[in-house]
Design goal:
The chain has 280 residues and is an alpha/beta fold. It has helices at 17-28, 40-50, 64-78, 102-127, 151-171, 190-194, 207-213, 225-236, 260-279, and strands at residues 8-12, 32-37, 54-58, 83-86, 133-138, 176-183, 247-250. It has a single domain, classed as Rossmann fold (3-Layer(aba) Sandwich). It has nine helices and seven strands, in the order βαβαβαβαβαβαααβα. A seven-stranded parallel β-sheet has the order 3-2-1-4-5-6-7, sandwiched between helices.
């Protein structure tokens, strides 16, 4: 018996990375999953591999008509919607605020903020009559700390986390839970896309991300897509029936601050410098 037996789920940004692994895990746990994304070749291939429990619909989450068709189509086909995972992502290079590109700014907010708001709008319309459901939004540690994403990305993710709180306060009264997951450095192609690598090949160039991210947080390994998929599984399942308005940070302890060993080394260096100063 799976944790999501009989549940109907939509995963946006489901063609690769976190979304693809989540779709796979949700099918394993008994859900019927509609995978949404812009890359039809990857989406159709994934749905085919997952079998009859999965289907794909090309969706641009920045377009209201696409989101409306995605959610209303799922409800028409299956009769209900139990979970929406608003996971579509967008990576851009770090830039100085003095070099802000307004078209780039508008594009990333359209996907990361407007797409989430539209997803919640149409999911709410589907879930309110049934008085149940789980909405999961993808935030980021960049919502909490500077330096983990561009200014625009960080702003967008902070908006997602706060919007999650606000909508949870409303929909919770109708039995609908709204939560978010804020990943740390997870080994996916989004870093490659932000570095200018073509989106069709970025997912194959993650070795450098894995090597460097393993040294960034207290848990000494790189974050994997399965870490986020399993957090999403908990929030989608009935096991989290009393969890609402929560942002689940999954980052290996990254935002707790500097690694303990790094702090010890820094203090040792400071002590040595002070001793040298005393000795003249």
């Amino acid at each position: 018996m799976g944790a999501l037996d009989g549940k109907i789920v939509i995963v946006t940004g489901g063609t690769s990375g976190i979304g693809a692994r989540t779709a796979e895990l949700f099918v394993e746990e008994g859900a019927r999953v509609v995978i949404a994304g812009r890359r039809s070749d990857l989406g159709n291939a994934l749905a085919s591999r997952l079998g009859e429990a999965a289907s794909f619909l090309r969706t641009d989450v920045s377009r209201e008509a696409d989101i409306k068709a995605l959610i209303e189509g799922a409800v028409q086909r299956f009769g209900r919607l139990d979970c929406l995972f608003n996971n579509a992502g967008y990576g851009i290079p770090h830039r100085s605020i003095a070099d802000l590109d307004v078209s780039e700014y508008d594009a990333i907010l359209a996907v990361l903020v407007r797409g989430v708001m539209l997803g919640m709008k149409y999911a709410a319309q589907a879930m309110l009559p049934q008085r149940s459901g789980s909405i999961i939004n993808t935030g980021s540690v960049a919502a909490y700390r500077s330096g983990y994403g561009s200014q625009t990305y960080s702003l967008a993710k902070a908006a997602v986390v706060h919007a999650t709180h606000c909508v949870a306060a409303e929909l919770g009264e109708s039995g609908i839970r709204v939560n978010s997951i804020s990943p740390g450095f997870i080994v996916t192609g989004i870093f490659g896309k932000g570095a200018g690598i073509d989106s069709d090949t970025a997912d194959r160039h993650t070795a450098a991300v894995a090597e460097r991210s393993a040294k960034m947080q207290p848990i000494p390994r790189s974050g994997q897509v399965d870490d986020i998929a399993r957090a999403a599984l908990y929030l989608a399942s009935d096991a989290s029936s009393f969890v609402n308005g929560h942002d689940m940070v999954v980052d290996g302890g990254l935002i707790t601050g500097a690694r303990f060993s790094a702090g010890v080394a820094s203090r040792r260096e400071l002590n040595d410098a002070l001793q040298q100063e005393v000795r003249g």
